[in-house]
């Protein structure tokens, strides 16, 4: 155990103990727990193969303690063994401390020892974050300092190593990452701008990674730097954002070891008034994979994050069959959306108003020209930002109409037209581009304030891949505590790989106060699970799943409130 790890772990434990025994002195402790366990059954029809243990368990608990200017926390994790398909990258095994830190904040200065998450700008050169249900966690382990010298000027600096996997505790990658960020809010810095209701925010970042060169044949850069500059204009109606990033040559496993520099440029604009919202964005990414280990896989040790320009659908079929994942080395993309609400009492608004959302996004390959006999610079190719290539990665045009019909009924109708290069996005070599149309009807009927029925009818039609799909979902909530859900997916024809298989799934959940217990039983279709343009493959499974979640806050003092609370979940 390193000295820094010992210091932050001991400080975390010490403050937790102090707070737990000193509530009356102003100390507080809070956190949450989550357990997901699955018992697997073999199912040859869908290709579900249980693990040797026939069971998987992901569990974690966060504990955070605060006292005055100090804060400390830790997370205990257990994978005994991890659920099938989890995580996205390096395997997780065993039980132990997965995150721990100690933090001090006083008079515009904040210092963190141990683990931390951080982001510079939109993340083009640095984003340390966790997406637990993807199994993505590149938490930093080291030191971070934040300082505000004057109002409106914000400085950040950090140094540390990244979390890689988990084996009885978190493991770290071989690289060292350092970074600084400066952000200036002109509205805060100059009082004369504040009264005008506008703000201009300027920012700049520099990040560098170090990894020793042990390649016997190539001379690899050991220190790889990246910088970014950003501008954000905000007013009552407008939000305009632009950011440019540049990365020096970084031969790695994702770019075939070339020495070409990387670039990224993005523009986003949004306009909103009451009842109307318009947004548009474009970006171009060229050779922007940036990892603290040049040999790491696509999910591990990513230093930066490249935001996608594609709608993050929540409905089952578009979200799990053909979701788009950002192509960090080679992408030109754009997206636009219009939201409009017809007012109550108008011809189209009716008694309760009507909402319309139209969204479109498209992503192409970058136009590149290979360099013949590239034995001098080893750049691999030449390119220009926003030079669109011929290959279409993805397009999505969708329209949603949402209407409240009465105090108890609400309906939403969605149409999606999709083109999807599954060979590029999911790595399925030789597969043709998928063209699909989807229509989704969602309804909600309220029987009372605490009881209601929600349903979804989804249909996808395609002549490629597995062809046509239909999904039906019904969810009944009762008394504000119970939720009963039934779902069935059916792949019934039209494609080259049609299975004609049903995927039924039933679920019962009970919620009381801060506790929730859910039990699922049925089939899980093999597919893709995505969050924010980052995806992982989910294998086919059949079995019983139990999830338990709970959150706890500091004990409520008798002199703070006389509020009534729900009775305990178990008696």
Note the main attributes of this structure.
571 residues, mainly beta, 25-stranded mixed beta sheet, two-stranded antiparallel sheet, 5 helices, globular
Your description of this structure?
There is one protein chain. With 571 residues, the protein is mainly beta. The chain contains five helices and 31 strands. Helices cover 6% and strands 56% of the residues. The relative contact order is 0.11. The C terminus is likely disordered.
Write the layout of secondary structure elements.
Blueprint: H1 3-20, E1 28-40, E2 55-67, E3 70-79, E4 92-106, E5 109-116, E6 118-119, E7 127-128, E8 130-131, E9 136-137, E10 140-147, E11 153-167, E12 170-172, E13 176-185, H2 186-189, H3 191-194, E14 199-210, E15 223-234, E16 238-247, E17 262-273, E18 276-286, H4 316-320, E19 330-342, E20 354-370, E21 381-404, E22 409-420, H5 422-425, E23 434-446, E24 452-462, E25 468-478, E26 482-493, E27 501-512, E28 515-524, E29 527-531, E30 534-538, E31 541-552
Parallel strand pairs: 4-11
Antiparallel strand pairs: 1-2, 1-31, 2-3, 3-4, 4-5, 5-10, 6-7, 8-9, 10-11, 11-12, 11-13, 13-14, 14-15, 15-16, 16-17, 17-18, 18-19, 19-20, 20-21, 21-22, 22-23, 23-24, 24-25, 25-26, 26-27, 27-28, 28-31, 29-30
């Amino acid at each position: 155990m390193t000295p820094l790890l010992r210091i932050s772990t001991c400080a975390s434990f010490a403050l937790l103990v102090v707070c737990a025994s000193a509530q009356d002195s102003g100390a507080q402790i809070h956190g949450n727990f989550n357990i997901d366990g699955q018992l697997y059954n073999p199912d040859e029809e869908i290709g579900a193969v249980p693990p040797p243990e026939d069971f998987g368990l992901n569990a974690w608990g966060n504990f955070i303690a605060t006292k005055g200017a100090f804060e400390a926390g830790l997370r205990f994790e257990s994978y005994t063994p991890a659920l099938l398909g989890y995580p996205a990258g390096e395997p997780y095994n065993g039980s132990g401390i997965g995150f721990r830190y100690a933090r001090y904040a006083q008079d515009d200065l904040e210092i963190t020892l141990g683990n931390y998450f951080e982001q510079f700008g939109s993340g083009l050169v640095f984003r340390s974050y966790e997406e637990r249900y993807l199994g993505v966690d590149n938490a930093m382990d080291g030191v971070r300092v934040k300082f505000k010298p004057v109002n409106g000027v914000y400085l950040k600096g950090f140094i540390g190593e990244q979390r890689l996997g988990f084996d009885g505790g978190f493991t770290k990658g071989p690289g060292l990452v350092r970074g600084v960020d400066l952000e200036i809010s002109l509205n805060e810095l100059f009082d004369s701008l504040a009264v005008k209701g506008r703000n201009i925010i300027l920012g700049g970042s520099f990040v560098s990674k170090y990894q020793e060169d042990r390649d016997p044949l190539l001379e690899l850069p050991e220190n790889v730097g990246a910088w970014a500059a950003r501008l954000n204009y905000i007013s009552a109606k407008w939000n305009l954002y632009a950011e440019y990033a540049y990365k020096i040559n970084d031969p790695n496993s994702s770019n075939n070891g070339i020495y070409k520099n990387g670039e990224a440029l993005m523009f986003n604009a949004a306009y909103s008034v009451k009842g109307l919202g318009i947004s548009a964005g474009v970006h171009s990414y060229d050779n922007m994979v940036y990892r603290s280990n040049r040999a790491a896989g696509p999910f591990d040790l990513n230093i930066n994050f490249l935001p996608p320009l594609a709608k993050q659908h929540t409905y089952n079929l578009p979200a799990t069959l053909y979701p788009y994942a950002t192509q960090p080395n080679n992408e030109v993309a754009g997206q636009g959306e219009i939201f409009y609400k017809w007012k109550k009492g108008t011809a189209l608004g009716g008694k309760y108003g009507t909402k319309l959302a139209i969204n479109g996004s498209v992503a192409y390959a970058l136009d590149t020209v290979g360099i013949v006999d590239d034995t001098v610079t080893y750049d691999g190719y030449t390119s220009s930002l926003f030079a669109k290539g011929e290959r279409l990665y993805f397009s999505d045009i969708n329209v949603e109409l949402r209407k409240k019909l009465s105090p108890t009924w609400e309906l939403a109708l969605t149409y999606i037209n999709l083109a999807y290069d599954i060979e590029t996005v999911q790595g399925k070599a030789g597969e043709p581009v998928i063209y699909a149309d989807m229509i989704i009807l969602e309804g909600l009927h309220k029987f009372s304030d605490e009881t209601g029925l929600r349903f979804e009818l989804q249909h996808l039609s395609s002549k490629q891949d597995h062809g046509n799909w239909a999904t039906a979902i019904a969810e009944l909530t009762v008394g504000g505590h119970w939720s009963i859900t039934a779902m069935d997916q059916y792949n019934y024809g039209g494609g080259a790989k049609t299975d004609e298989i049903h995927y039924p799934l039933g679920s019962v959940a009970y919620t009381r106060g801060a506790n929730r217990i859910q039990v699922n039983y049925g089939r899980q279709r093999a597919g893709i699970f995505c969050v924010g343009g980052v995806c992982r493959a989910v294998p086919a499974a059949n079995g019983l799943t139990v999830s338990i979640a709970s959150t706890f806050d500091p004990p409520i003092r008798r002199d703070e409130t006389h509020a009534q609370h729900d009775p305990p979940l178990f008696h």
